[in-house]
């Protein structure tokens, strides 16, 4: 069993090995420019691209526009993450739940639909836990310091925290300012932590106008936004902007950039409302495309026999909202166009 391998064979395999190493190394350096930027995503369904296996987002009619079947996105198609990734010229990062060692180069998406900064109505990983998971990957050297230094983080949060607050408080806004203060405080700690793990560019979304969500406007037949709830969002954003400014000051450079979902939702909705008024075949942007057939059902519901208990609008591409809580791909695309100038700010810092 100790038969010696002939020297020539050993030399040949050594050569082959060297050759392979050179080719691989060249492959790597050739791809360096693309490999440089990675996107790490934390938060909720506005940015989740498939982490929540047991949610409706993995059932029809989710995903009918893109990728053509349910993919765990809470939309008929692309969500904000996909557009941010395309802006950075990379593929949308893989959801952590679908982690594969071969697809780490675009970063990782830890966002989980229904979750928040604190514990929410669902039993998913809050943002702290999502960051813990990220930290473990760094400790395991899945991502290295240089990887992180050239990476970008996208953070979306707070909608579900408020949802829980209002459900628990019988829709009353009593005590909401105190809640906002503690929420922003925790969120700010989370942001700081992402930065201290080594990411130098972090985009955080401001809270959308929660009073315009179909869940808040169905009461008025989707005619107008709930101003009380929008004021809650404005106060939240006011505090968050202050917190972000303080963080940037502390660090001494503009690591944190905000994406203004509040004004981009409102201006998109206003412009679609004008179009709807001029041409009634266009959709009322406050009306969701996909709804349950009655209040006991929701978008994606089926009965015991598997029969559909929801309806989908004729042209999802003309809607702003996909369901009671989430923009459609068309909605996200319009919002993305309006936050592009802020995204340019994170790119610039790379120069
Ligand atoms: C997040 O969840 C973990 C695990 O359930 C919990 O220990 C932690 O307190 C939560 N963090 C916040 C900020 O609510
Ligand atoms: C708007 O939202 C507030 C807070 O949940 C609620 O008390 C109020 O009834 C809502 N207004 C309408 C017209 O639905
Ligand atoms: C619907 O609106 C009325 C006031 O117009 C309000 O009293 C009620 O609480 C609202 N219901 C919901 C579900 O917001
Ligand atoms: C109204 O919008 C529909 C859908 O986009 C379009 O096909 C139609 O030409 C428009 N009508 C007018 C009068 O602009």
From TrEMBL:
InterPro entries: GDSL (IPR001087), SGNH_hydro_sf (IPR036514)
A single GO BP: lipid catabolic process
Signal peptide: 1-27
Keywords for the protein's UniProt record, in alphabetical order: Hydrolase, Lipid degradation, Lipid metabolism, Signal
GO molecular function terms noted in the UniProt entry: hydrolase activity, acting on ester bonds
The keyword Plastid is annotated on this UniProt entry: no
Superkingdom as given in the UniProt entry: Eukaryota
Family: Belongs to the 'GDSL' lipolytic enzyme family.
Name of this chain's protein: GDSL-like lipase/acylhydrolase
Lineage: Eukaryota, Viridiplantae, Streptophyta, Embryophyta, Tracheophyta
């Amino acid at each position: 069993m100790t038969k010696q391998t002939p020297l020539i064979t050993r030399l040949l395999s050594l050569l082959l090995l060297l050759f392979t190493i050179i080719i691989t190394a060249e492959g790597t350096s050739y791809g360096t420019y693309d490999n440089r930027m990675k996107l790490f995503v934390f938060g909720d369904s506005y940015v989740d691209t498939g982490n929540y296996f047991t949610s409706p987002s993995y059932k029809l009619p989710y995903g009918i526009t893109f990728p053509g079947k349910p993919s765990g996105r809470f939309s008929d198609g692309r969500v904000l993450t996909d557009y941010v990734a395309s802006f950075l010229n990379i593929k949308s990062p893989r959801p952590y739940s679908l982690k594969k060692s071969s697809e780490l180069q675009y970063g990782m998406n830890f966002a989980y639909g229904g979750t928040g900064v604190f514990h929410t109505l669902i039993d998913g990983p809050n943002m702290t836990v999502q960051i813990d998971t990220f930290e473990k990957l760094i400790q395991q050297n899945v991502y290295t310091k240089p990887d992180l230094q050239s990476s970008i983080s996208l953070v979306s949060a707070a909608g579900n925290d408020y949802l829980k607050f209002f459900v628990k408080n019988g829709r009353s806004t009593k005590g909401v300012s105190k809640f906002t203060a503690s929420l922003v405080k925790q969120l700010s700690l989370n942001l700081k932590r992402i930065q201290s793990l080594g990411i130098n560019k972090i985009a955080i979304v401001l809270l959308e106008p929660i009073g315009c969500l179909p869940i808040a406007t169905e009461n008025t037949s989707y005619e107008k936004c709930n101003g009380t709830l929008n004021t809650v969002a404005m106060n939240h954003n006011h505090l968050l902007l202050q917190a972000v400014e303080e963080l940037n000051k502390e660090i001494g450079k503009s690591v944190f950039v905000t994406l203004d979902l509040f004004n981009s939702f409102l201006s998109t909705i206003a412009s679609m409302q004008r179009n709807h008024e001029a041409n009634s075949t266009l959709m009322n942007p406050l009306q969701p495309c996909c709804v349950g057939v009655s209040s006991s059902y929701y978008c994606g519901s089926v009965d015991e026999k598997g029969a559909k208990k929801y309806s989908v609008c004729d042209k999802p591409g003309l809607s702003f909202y996909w369901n009671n809580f989430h923009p459609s791909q068309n909605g996200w695309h319009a919002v993305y166009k309006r936050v592009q100038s802020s995204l340019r700010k994170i790119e610039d810092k790379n120069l």
